[in-house]
Amino acid sequence: MLQRLVELAEYTSAAYNDLCARLGVVQSMGRVGSCFDSAVAEAFNSTVKVESGGILPTEPGEVMHQGEDLGRWVRSVRLGWDNLTTAQQWLCEHVLGIEPAGEDEMPTPRRTQAAKWAMNFEAARQFFEREGHLRVPRKHVERIVGEDQAEREVRLGAWISNQRSRTATLPPERAEQLSAIGMRWA
Questions:
Q1: Cα-flanking dihedrals φ and ψ of residue 69, to 5°?
Q2: Which residues fall within 8 angstroms of residue 93, CB to CB, at 6 or more apart?
Q3: Secondary structure (3-state) at 134
């Protein structure tokens, strides 16, 4: 029977870690079960070099490998940089050449539920001021100008109908706001 020269346990021992630190050797950055192990990252990098001509894809759909969209993966890594461990960030930067997305590349934050409600309420207020009532046809779409000066289409008829059906769970202050602009609850 052949014996391995170095048993795997030796690579995780404190003595081995201390020796590497003294010699300035950077050990594999991955953890057991982590897809960011150095060998996997290096294999991925060589695949990218072959599949994409040596340029890491930055947009979804540019390079597909075994059914995986490499550009989509790169974008998700760049946008989710803060969710990666320090070791994963190091591997992405030094092995794969991936850098975190800049502020200008980050997607705009999603509107909160309160902001959505306020936008719909503004559309209802606008409709009431123009029409004098809130008997809005279910399929009616109201156009409003938002705080960012962008025009938005609000499905006001559906929203009004939903507010009526949720009367029991609607916070009192919102019910009062709607009542003040002519909402009929029955």
A1: -90, 105
A2: 99
A3: coil
Residues 6+ apart with CB under 8 A from 105: 78, 79
Average pLDDT over the chain reads 79
* Amino acid at site 174: R
pLDDT at 174 over 90: yes
Q: What SS3 class is residue 144?
A: strand
Nearest to 13 by CA among 27, 33, 30, 34: 27
Angstrom distance (rounded) from CA 26 to CA 133: 71
Q: H or E element: which one contains 110?
A: none
Is residue 149 classed exposed, middle or buried when 0-12, 13-18 and 19+ CB atoms within 10 A define those classes? exposed
Q: Which of 43, 91, 77 is nearest to 51 (CA)?
A: 43
Enumerate residues 6+ apart whose C-beta is below 8 A from 126. Answer: 142, 144
Look up the pTM and report it: 0.49
Closest CA to 83 of 27, 33, 36: 36
